[in-house]
Amino acid sequence: MITRLSSTKFLLMFFIWWLAGVQPAKAKILLPDFFSDNMVLQQKMNDAIWGWSNPNANVIVRVSWNAQTFVATANAKGKWKMFIPAPVAGGPYTLDIKDADSHVQLKNVLSGEVWFCSGQSNMEMPLKGYPGQPVGGSQDAIARSTNSRIHLLRVEKAMSSIPLDNLKGSWTECNAETAALISAVGYSFGKYLQDVLHVPVGIIHSNWGGTRIECWMSEDTLQTFPFVDLSVISRDKNPSLTPALLYNAMVAPLVGYGMRGCIWYQGESNRFEPKQYAQLMPAMISSWRTKWAIGDFPFYFVQIAPFFYWNESNNAAFLREAQLHTSLNTKNTGMAVTIDIGSEMSVHPGEKFLVGKRLAYWALSKDYGMKTLTCSGPVYKKMKTNKDTIKLYFDFASDGLASADTLLTGFEMAAADQVFYPANAKISSGNEILVWNEHLDKPVAVRYAWRNWVVGTLYNTEGLPASSFRTDDWDK
Q1: Rounded to whole angstroms, how far apart are CA atoms 281 and 88?
Q2: pTM score of the predicted model
C-alpha cells in the first residue's frame, strides 16, 4: 500500500517529535496522491516527480522502460524532487521509488499526452449529464468508454485559504464506471485525441460549478488587480466567490506536473464584469504558465454559449467578446466557439462532444502537426462603408464563408446615434459579407449575434462558426 500524507502533516509530526525529545522512527516515502498507479507521464518531457522522505535521505527512482535510475537528496525538511525524461508514448511501465528504509512501486504507468481540464459547471458537467440536463450521446459513449489507453484523474472538490501540496484524487483507467463521472467536455477532448493520435492520453479534471475566475487564480496574481477583494480569502466560506480558494486546493498541488497543456470552460459567473474578465483571464493564463515552469504551454478554452439569462440589459455578448480578445491577443491560446449550439433555456447545453472536438482541432493543428486542419471559425478583421452598406472582411476563411441557412441572420446595424436595427446580410464573395438596412442611411457599425440568446448562422467552409462580434467600441 502506498502511504500518502501532505507535507504539512509530515513536518508537523517531526516538530512534535522534536519538542518531545523523541527520536522519530524512520519515515516511509510519501507521495502526493496524483503520483499513483495508472498515472500518465507527459511523453518526451523531463517530468517532475516529488515527495517526502527522511531529512537528507537519498531517494532513488528506477524506471522500467530502460532500467535507468535517478537520485535525489531530500532537504532538511524531507522534501525531494527530481526530473525524469519520459519516453515516447507507450507503456504500461513501473516506477520503483526507494530510500534506505522504504519502497513504493507505481504500476500501470503510461507515457503519453497529458491535459489539465478546469472551469465551472459546463466543464464539470459529467458524461452522464446533470439531473434533467442530458449530454447528447452520453449512453453510447459510456457504453463504449472502456479504454486502457485513456487514464483519468478526477480531483475531488476542496478549498483552502493557503496553497496546499496535496489533493484527493488518484489515476484510474477509463471505463464505464469512471467515465460516467468525468467531465463530458474533457472526456470527449481526450477521446478524440486518442482516436486520432493512437497514443495514451491522460486527462486531469479539476472543476467546480458556479465559480468565478478569481477562485482559480493565485493570491499573488490577484494582488495586481485593485478591483479584487482579497480580504475575503481568510473567510474560507463560499467556494464560488472567494478569490484563490480553489487555486490553493485544486490547482496548486499539481503545479509542476508534466503536461502538454490546458483546456478551460468558464465565464458565466463573470458575465456582469466583462472588462475585468478581459484583464483577469490573460493574467491567469500567464500565471499558470509561470508557476508550471514548462514554457508557454497551449491553453485552449470554450466561449460561453448563448442562453436566455432573463435580463438582456446584462448582455453576455460582452463577456464572449472578452474571451475572443483573449484568444486573439494571448500567445498560444485558442477558442472553441459555441454560438451555434447553445440552449435557450439551459445554461448547460448538451452538445458537449462537439465542444470537445472543436477544442481538439486546436490541439491537433497547433501541437500535433496537423497544419492543414482548420481550428478556428471566421474572425472579423475589418470593415468598409459605402453609402448605405457595410462590407465586412474575415480571417480564418481562406476557403470562403458559409451559412447554416439560405439567409444569414443575427446582424444589426447602427448609424452615429448608436441605435441598432436588424440588418440584412449576404456573403458577397470569398471571405466578405455585405450588410445593409434599406431604412438606415449612413450606417457606421455592425454587430453579429450580439444578444444573450441567439443561434449563430455564420461559418467558414470547414463548418466552424464565427464568434459574436462588433465593429464598434461603444459601451452599450
Answers
A1: 33
A2: 0.93
